[in-house]
Design brief:
- The chain folds into 2 domains: about 80 residues, Urease, subunit C, domain 1 (Roll); about 250 residues, Metal-dependent hydrolases (TIM Barrel), CATH 3.20.20.140.
- Helices cover about 35% and strands about 20% of the residues.
- It has 12 helices and 17 strands.
- The strands form 3 sheets. The protein has a 9-stranded parallel sheet with strand order 14-13-12-11-10-9-8-7-15. Strands 3-2-6-16-17 form a 5-stranded mixed sheet, with no helix packed on it. The chain has a 3-stranded antiparallel sheet with strand order 1-4-5, with no helix packed on it.
- The protein is globular.
């Protein structure tokens, strides 16, 4: 039997206790002091979900001061020109390195808005089989066959924004994605406020950014039970700040993503620290910071019985070292421990 932790994230909250693992499965969660030396001490949680990434631009070195349009808006933002010029080997190298860093930071999977059409999705599947891939068609006109090819490889579709693409095109892509029971998502109100009624009519699994959203927009997301993934560190590059306090007050489920690899490392502790700093500066409370960092991203992908650590689940777990109380995982910079079940011989 292996033992993990000094505290555990359970369905009932964080308890002071430990996880017992037998034959690759969480056998039980116990309160109190472990009966033997744990494999790793700290806060035991399921592997994190980095809820929004663009991993392929990891090799791009960017100057300061570019606008959103100059850097990331398709088709001629600097990032897109870089990706088009990148050979397949370098593309996969960028993705593989990003995946390795993600794993070392306790991230079990990342939801990647994958540019490059079908080929971009195939490359990421090769580089990181556990990635959740939301592909993006290359054709400027709706092409049902192209979308079908992407969805054979990818887990869904992730589009740039309703400001960049014709609305009729977006509706057709969203309809086809949902018909195939795949994930549809889109950037929303990142550089300008966008029509939230149209966005929600697409029935997205989640939306990304909502930096320029009004309270009315946020309330509509909450009422529709559409989570918002925020990317505080990447927003900072563009001198933008997501309205985190207002999102919380409106009842939105907030998850975190690290966005473009060229801007931010896949480090959820760093993202949560930036999130906390902004939220407190807006007069908000950080009491839900661990839910926003850990559980809300998992809610996007997994059923309720896989959101927290629970008996009977496969023992693929992350252990965060603690520097004080439970939210001390944010102040500790010690390495994260990833527990994976031993393969049976």
């Amino acid at each position: 039997m292996d033992v993990l932790g000094s505290s555990v994230l359970t369905e009932d909250g964080i308890i002071d206790g430990y996880v017992c693992i037998e034959e690759g499965v969480v056998a039980s969660i116990e309160e109190g002091v472990p009966p033997q030396r744990p494999v790793a001490a700290g806060l035991v949680v399921p592997p994190l979900v980095n809820a929004h990434t663009h991993c392929a631009d990891a090799g791009l070195k960017i100057p300061q001061g570019l606008t959103i349009e100059e850097l990331v808006t398709p088709p001629n933002g600097l990032k897109h020109m870089y990706l088009r010029a990148l050979g397949e080997n370098d593309l996969i190298k960028n993705m593989t390195g990003y995946a390795e860093t993600s794993r070392s930071n306790g991230i079990g999977t990342f939801i990647d808005f994958r540019e490059g059409g079908e080929k971009g999705c195939i490359a990421l599947r090769k580089a990181c089989p556990e990635a959740v891939i939301l592909g993006r068609p290359l054709s400027k006109e709706y092409d049902q066959k192209e979308v079908s090819r992407i969805l054979k490889v990818a887990d869904g579709i992730g589009l740039s924004s309703i400001s960049d693409v014709d609305h009729a095109y977006i509706e057709k892509v969203a309809d086809q994605t949902r018909e195939q029971r795949k994930i549809f998502s889109i950037h929303a109100s990142e550089r300008v406020r966008e029509d939230i009624d149209f966005i929600l009519s697409l029935d997205p699994a989640f939306v990304v950014h909502m930096v320029e959203a009004t309270d009315s927009d946020l309330l509509k997301c909450a009422e529709a039970e559409v989570p918002i993934v925020v990317c505080v560190r990447s927003n900072r590059y563009f001198k933008k700040t997501p309205p985190l306090k207002r999102m919380s007050e409106c009842g939105v489920d907030i998850a975190m993503g690290t966005d473009n690899a060229m801007l931010c490392s896949p480090d959820m502790r760093a993202e949560a620290n930036a999130f906390k700093e902004v939220l407190l500066s807006q007069g908000g409370s950080a009491e839900d910071i661990l839910s926003q960092m850990i559980t809300n991203g998992r809610k996007i992908l997994y059923p309720n019985n896989k959101i927290h650590v629970s008996a009977g689940m496969t023992a693929e777990l992350t252990v965060f070292p603690l520097a004080g109380p439970h939210d001390g995982i944010l102040s500790s910079r010690d390495p994260v421990f990833r527990y994976k079940p031993k393969k049976r011989r």
